[in-house]
Write a structure and sequence with these properties.
alpha/beta; Substrate Binding Domain Of Dnak, Chain:A, Domain 2; Rossmann fold; 3 domains; 6-stranded parallel β-sheet; 28 helices; 16 strands; about 50% helix; binds iron/sulfur cluster; binds Broken Fe4S4 cluster
């Protein structure tokens, strides 16, 4: 942590576009999350999560051996309570998003919305049949109505098991059942987190953390999965599409509208409205060449992977986008929106517009979104942005943008591997079994200004690719990798190991597969389920050579994600500030980190660890993958064994003279 020392733009970020804007911030005397992180010394007790303020006898700080809170709470109880409250908040954020999507599905099915359609009817029918909802002879609206009812019921359900858990491998469901951590209803488990952590309730760290697992499973296999399912039904299941990322996607001669947050409902309608001739003409009348929509954070991922709308950046670039002076409106919905945006925008002409019923920011314009008038509201917001174009002052748009091919839903991966009529994960499983692919890793999560922006995401990705590990990425991590060119086929392939390169060339995929937004980590769970179902890589997710990583996490959602990924059987490494840290002066603070690692490994077959050093992260990831390979009886990874077949060999041969080609082919 760098608090107290003023860093240079190069120390703040590895991204040249961000460095340029951070330099501009200094010239203009403006603060950013980066400079505020320099000035804000983190409270060391809070950083270790050894502070409790859940009742007014406290706050209580535990700083030495034998000390307890006024109620007698020990350090491990306090840490476990703080941890589960993060899980509850993260699960609530994802799942409330899922609930809103399910309610929108119901409204669309009943014809109560404006501008939305059921775009992926095949997925709707497929999902409905998974839950025994009749599909034959019924209209898409009838089926969607039933599916929406079923999904809405999962949030408030009191008894039984959240229905979408049936999509986890049977072996995993049995692990959860045996431990008594099958979530009954998504909301019920979140509420119980708060009840258990009220003064005078659950005061056994292990017992508290068992419920953290249960709550997080309700997020990953419940709320988040529902959010992803419904988004695909309403806006289409993603398939590869060409896009661009970084601040250079902003246009100097167009009205720039940036959508930021997480929900796809308004942002998709903004995209639709921006293509209506009447709106384009309105922009031209204002002297602009057109309207340029781009995104930040996961709203960016939602419209990037479905419509190829460019992403202006990830979490730490939200303030920097406004500092270009070229953004007429930043439209935000929910999650990861910095309050500082309004203060930054006051120095430019940008209007920050909040749109969610749940989110207002002091000083921002609030235009409440309503699905029933979605298109009208989207058009009004765009007209407002266009009217603001004439107020633009000096602009500076960094000339940095990179191509990206996002949109690897598990449905598309299935199709890419086997084609329409024999879609299957067989080729992927075979590639791992043969050792061409050493293993799999998911790199996900945020940026954190306490560290160097994008650095850990990119460094870890590069090291794992060199070692033939196929990567899937979501959220701000995927935007970080896209900025350095790892999310396009050919451009990324010179940086990957020989076996992985062969697979990418043969199938035509990049070595890093973009799987969407934060809630779309549920797509990774679905991929892992399919890998198990396909056979050859174990009977359960915990047997697959796979690791989860969140190198620059900052949000409570990331803690919930990490917890459900571990609960699903995947060894997970987070970096940066650990939410529960061992303090040598407080021996009880060793207990919770131990419960999260070896404790959870015994219970669910995977551990959660917090590691900061890149070399250690990479070596532990590879060691885990190799250990799982050995346990499955697969051949040990050998990079020398591959790389002499496929397109790379053909390209080499094509570069030879005719005589040498003959020699190379026939010997
Ligand atoms: Fe202190 Fe106990 Fe109250 Fe927490 S619950 S603030 S440890 S007295
Ligand atoms: S947006 S939760 S900063 S990934 Fe999903 Fe990025 Fe993390 Fe927000």
């Amino acid at each position: 942590m760098m608090a107290g020392k003023k860093r240079t733009p190069e120390e703040y970020s590895i991204d040249p576009a961000s460095q340029e804007m951070l330099l501009r911030a200094e010239e203009l005397g403006l603060k950013t999350a980066f400079s505020r992180a320099d000035e804000m010394k983190a409270c060391p007790i809070g950083a270790d999560n050894l502070c409790c303020k859940i009742c007014s006898m406290g706050p209580c700080r535990i700083v030495k051996e034998g000390q307890t809170g006024i109620c007698g709470a020990t350090a491990d109880t306090i840490q476990a309570r703080n941890f589960i409250r993060m899980v509850a908040a993260g699960a609530a954020a994802h799942s409330d998003h899922g609930r809103d999507m399910a309610v929108t599905l119901k409204e669309v099915a009943n014809g109560e919305t404006q501008g939305y359609v059921l775009r992926d009817v095949a997925k709707l029918r497929d999902l409905a049949s998974k839950y025994d909802i009749p599909i034959e002879g019924r209209s898409p609206s009838e089926i969607a109505n039933d599916l929406a009812d079923l999904y809405i019921a999962q949030f408030g359900q009191q008894q039984g098991v959240v229905v979408s858990l049936s999509r986890a491998p049977k072996s995993r469901q049995k692990v959860w059942e045996k431990l008594g951590i099958l979530p009954r209803g998504v909301d019920r488990e979140i509420v119980e987190c708060l009840h258990r952590t009220h003064i005078g309730d659950d005061q056994d760290a292990e017992h508290i953390l068992d419920h953290a697992l249960r709550t997080a499973i309700g997020d990953g296999w419940g709320g988040s999965l529902i959010a992803t399912d419904v988004s695909d039904i309403l806006f289409g299941s993603p398939a590869p599409i060409l896009g661009e990322v970084n601040l250079g996607v902003l246009k100097d001669d167009q009205v720039n509208v940036v959508v930021h947050g997480h929900e796809p409902t308004l942002s998709n309608m903004i995209v639709v409205a921006s293509q209506i001739p009447e709106i384009i003409d309105y922009a031209k009348e204002a002297g602009a060449k057109g309207i340029n929509i781009s995104g930040i954070c996961c709203t960016a991922n939602e419209v990037l992977m479905r419509q190829g709308i460019p992403a202006a950046g990830n979490f730490l670039q939200q303030e920097l986008a406004i500092m270009t002076g070229a953004v007429e409106a930043m439209i935000v919905d929910v999650q990861c929106i910095m309050q500082a945006l309004v203060g930054i925008a006051e120095n430019f002409h940008t209007e920050v517009i909040t749109t969610s019923k749940k989110v207002k920011i002091k000083g921002a314009t609030h235009i409440e979104f309503d699905e029933k008038k979605a298109l009208d509201i989207a058009k009004d917001i765009l007209r407002r942005a266009i009217d603001n174009y004439e107020n633009r002052g000096k602009i500076q748009i960094p000339d940095h943008r990179s191509p990206v091919v996002p949109g690897f839903s598990h449905e598309y991966i299935n199709y890419a591997l086997g084609g329409s009529y024999r879609s299957s994960f067989r080729p992927l499983n075979d590639a791992v079994m043969s050792g061409r692919i050493r293993g799999l890793a998911g790199i996900v999560g945020c940026n954190n200004p306490r560290g160097q922006h994008d650095n850990l995401h990119v460094e870890i990705a590069r090291e794992l690719l060199k070692n033939d590990v196929l990567l899937v990425e979501t959220g701000c991590s995927s935007i970080a990798s896209a900025k350095v060119g790892l999310l396009v086929g050919e451009a990324g392939l010179d940086q990957v190991g020989p076996g992985l390169r062969e697979i990418c060339e043969a199938i035509g995929i990049p070595p890093v597969l973009h799987m969407g937004s934060c809630v779309d980590n549920s797509r990774i769970l679905t991929v892992l389920s399919q890998v198990v179902e396909e056979g050859g890589l174990g009977e359960d997710i915990s047997e697959i050579p796979v690791v989860g990583l969140a190198p620059e996490w900052m949000s409570e959602k990331a803690i919930s994600i990490a917890t459900y990924v571990v609960a699903s059987g995947v060894y997970t490494i987070m970096s940066g500030t650990a939410p529960v840290a061992s303090n040598p002066k407080v021996p009880d603070s060793l207990i919770v980190p131990e419960l999260l690692s070896t404790g959870w490994e015994k219970k669910v077959g995977a551990k959660l660890e917090f590691i900061n050093d890149v070399d250690t992260i990479v070596s532990k990831t590879l060691a885990h993958i190799d250990k799982k390979r050995a346990e499955l009886g697969l051949p040990a990874y050998d990079p020398e064994a591959f790389g002499e077949s496929g397109d790379s060999r053909m390209l080499e041969i094509e570069s030879l003279s005719v005589a040498d080609r003959r020699e190379a082919i026939y010997g």
